[in-house]
Amino acid sequence: MQLPSVTPASSTIPASSVQVAPEEALRLAEAFRIFSQASEQLTGAYSELQGQVEQLTEELAAANGALRQQYQEKAALTERLSLLLDALPAGVVVLDDAGSVVQINPAARDFLGGAKVGAGWAAIYATALVPGDTPGEFLGGERCLAVDVTPLDSAGGRIVLLHDITEAQHLKTRAERNQRLAAMGEMAAQLAHQLRTPLAAALLYAGNLESAELPSASTVAIAKKTVARLKHIEHLIQDMLLFARGEALGRERFTVSDLLAELAQNFEPLAQTSGAQFVVTDESPGALLTGKRKSLVSALTSLLENALQAVDGQEGGRIELSARHEESMVFLAVRDNGRGMDNATAARLFEPFYTTRSDGTGLGLAIARGVARAHGGSIDVVSSPGAGAEFILSLPWQKN
Q1: 172 inside domain
Q2: CA dihedral angle for residue 153, residue 157, residue 161, residue 162, rounded to 10 degrees
Q3: DSSP letter (8 states) at residue 100
Q4: N or C: where does the chain have the smaller number of CB atoms within 10 Å of the terminal CB?
Q5: Whole domain around residue 70: which residue ranges?
Q6: Are residue 281 and residue 399 in the same domain, yes or no?
Q7: Angstrom distance (rounded) from CA 216 to CA 228
Q8: 173-191: average pLDDT
Q9: What is the pTM for the complete model shown?
Q10: Could you read off the pLDDT of 62-98 as tens digits, one per residue?
């Protein structure tokens, strides 16, 4: 069956009704052109943005790969450092800004009696570490430890290093003993020579006392001379024993001011008897020393007696004893305005048995230097002929 033909509806619209004004056509054409141009620009921008996204994606993937590699390298480094820390024979303790342990290696746990992470360092320090005979050294159980504390600039905490110096201390003690034994051969020969003269004099005086015809006044004078010679021999023997035995350091804590006061009390009468002016200056308020006070008094007394000998018989003789401190050291100085000495004499002053006095033992300054070294310090001398001498005893000090 044949369908009827259909005439389009548009064919029935008059031609005059679809005509567009020229101005409107121009505006439509311009709008279409602008739309096309914007569309092209958007298409280009999208393509450019898509290219940038692809580039950024590649860069991000590369950065992620680099970061992953760095992370793996840091993880491997951390593992190696942890293994190294555990294998170190030295103790390592890391503290936070509050003083609590955040990391500790096996050696440190062993040194500190099983200290653990989270414990307070102040409590560990008070219970597990005992100050040793030498400043800066501590006893941890049966070990001798050197403790070094370093601040961590970035984190604000501290890192504590513990070094086991037990064997080194044993070696040092044996070396010092061997040195003293080696010096004793020379000491025995020189001491025999030094003892011979006063002993011969004492025997001569004692022989005179056997005479029954000796007047009583002469008897007293000769007896005094005999006793003086015997005391000189005793002094020689005491100095020899002190030098041979070495200096054992004590653990007393005392102020420098108290040390100066004791020295002034002991030495002032001797200075007055000799007519020398004695001046004490203390510029070390609050400075504390740790050691054997009696030994330090003896060492400084030897320096003062040497100064007194240097100004003996000199008009206007002056001896100064002073103390000052800088940073971690105390400087105790004995200065005189006596005859002084040349460089050759000053270089040999601390040698055992070297003396410039006919009645000297030559051991006083050697013993004084031994005392200074046992306390972690030293003795130096500055002098020139005619300009007096200054002996400076340097010692480590502790703050209150």
Answers
A1: no
A2: 160
A3: B
A4: N
A5: 22-84
A6: yes
A7: 18
A8: 71
A9: 0.46
A10: 888 888 888 888 887 777 777 777 777 788 888 888 8
Token pair for 144: 């001798």
- Let me know if residue 9 belongs to a domain: no
Using CA atoms, how far residue 130 sits from 119, 125, 142, in Å, is 18, 8, 11
Is-contact 391 334, C-beta < 8 A? Answer: yes
Residue 359 token pair? 């009645």
**End of a domain among 48, 67, 84?**
84
Distance CA(162)–CA(143), nearest Å, equals 11
For residue 392, what pLDDT is reported? 92
The CATH number given to whatever domain includes residue 347 is 3.30.565.10
User: Has residue 381 been placed in a domain?
Assistant: yes
Residue 170 lies in a domain: no
7 pLDDT tier (thresholds 50, 70, 90): very low
Q: Tokens at residue 366, please?
A: 């050697």
pLDDT at 334 (0 to 100): 92
- Gap between the Cα atoms of 374 and 13, Å rounded: 127
For the stretch 281-286, contacts whose Cβ atoms lie closer than 8 Å and that sit 24 or more positions apart, written own/partner, are 281/320, 281/321, 281/322, 281/323, 282/256, 282/257, 282/322, 282/323, 283/322, 283/323, 283/324, 283/325, 284/256, 284/257, 284/323, 284/324, 284/325, 284/330, 284/397, 285/257, 286/255, 286/399, 286/400
Q: What is the mean pLDDT of residues 50-64?
A: 89
Instruction: Name the domain count of the chain.
Output: 4
* Same domain? 277 vs 299: yes
Give φ, ψ of 98 to 5 degrees.
-90, 0
Element (H, E) at 288: strand 288-291
Residue with tokens 């000189």: 232
Collapsed DSSP state (helix, strand, coil) of residue 376: coil
Say which DSSP state 285 is in. Answer: T
Q: 288 - beta bridge partners?
A: 255, 398
Per-residue pLDDT tens digits for 132-148: 766 667 877 678 888 88
Do the Cβ atoms of 389 and 338 come closer than 8 Å?
A: yes
Token pair of 299 as six digits = 């060492």
- d(C-alpha 72, C-alpha 134), whole Å: 46
pLDDT digits (tens, 9 = 90+) for 185-237: 666 666 665 566 677 777 877 877 777 777 777 788 888 888 877 877 776 67
Positive/negative CA dihedral, 162, 164, 168, 173: positive
SS (H, E, C) 36-73: HHHHHHHHHHHHHHHHHHHHHHHHHHHHHHHHHHHHHH
